[in-house]
Amino acid sequence: MNPLKHVAIIMDGNGRWGIKHKNSRNAGHKAGLKTVEKIIKETIKNRIKFLTLYAFSTENWKRPKKEINFLFNLLENFLKSRINEFHKENIKLKIIGVKNFSKKLNKILISSEKKTLKNDKLQINLALNYGSKFELLNAFKYLNKNKKRINENNLKKYLQTKNIPDPDLLIRTGNTHRLSNFLLWQLAYSEIFFEKKLWPDFNEKDYNKIIKKFSNIKRNFGKV
Question: Cys-Cys with 160: which of 45, 96, 126, 139 at CB 3.0–4.6 Å?
Fold first, then answer.
């Protein structure tokens, strides 16, 4: 059975679900948040230590402004209402990506990270305004600036996922088969599962089914 420390998820399909069921993309984002809560609880049940959720990419700024504002308001309200509970449940929140949002949202994000900093039951890495190409280019710039030798160990020190193990497993919902500029370096040897269901329809049973399949995969990492 394969050890499972870190699951990464591309939560795709909220907008399509919203259009299909409510004629509103925003309704899909709201429904997707309920799935997030279910998956967090199931991750804890499975004693998985790291969960990385792709919430907003550097490319998502191309979306309509109203939708972006709705997403950020949804996130603000979620953190305000849930961060104390996260803290009580010993859950740590870490933001990966560039925090160049509104002053209000930045303050909430920084406060949430600070409040949960020493928690260690589960670490949730929330990828916000995150893009892997930017992350890698930035890491190389810092290597050059600090006159460090370019090698794997030094590069890892300048990634936003520093001190976080690489994902063992990536799940992407929404029946889309691509990585969308997500953790390109870190996913080099991850097992990847593409799920047909849209994110709001994804449930605990689907999650556990993938975890079970993962546990039975023979992982060679280049060996025979």
Answer: 96
**Containing structural domain, residue 128:** 6-215
Of the residues 2, 12, 100, 146, which is catalytic?
12
The total number of structural domains in the chain stands at 1
Do 163 and 141 meet the contact criterion of CB atoms below 8 Å apart?
no
120 is catalytic: no
Selected catalytic residue, list 23, 26, 60, 216: 60
pLDDT digit string, tens, across residues 67-102: 999 999 999 999 999 999 999 999 999 999 999 999
CATH number for the domain spanning 31: value is 3.40.1180.10
60 catalytic? Reply is yes
Handedness of CA 19, 25, 30, 31 (dihedral sign): positive
Please state the φ and ψ torsions of residue 47, each to the nearest 5 degrees: 55, 40
Band of residue 224 on the pLDDT scale cut at 50, 70, 90? low
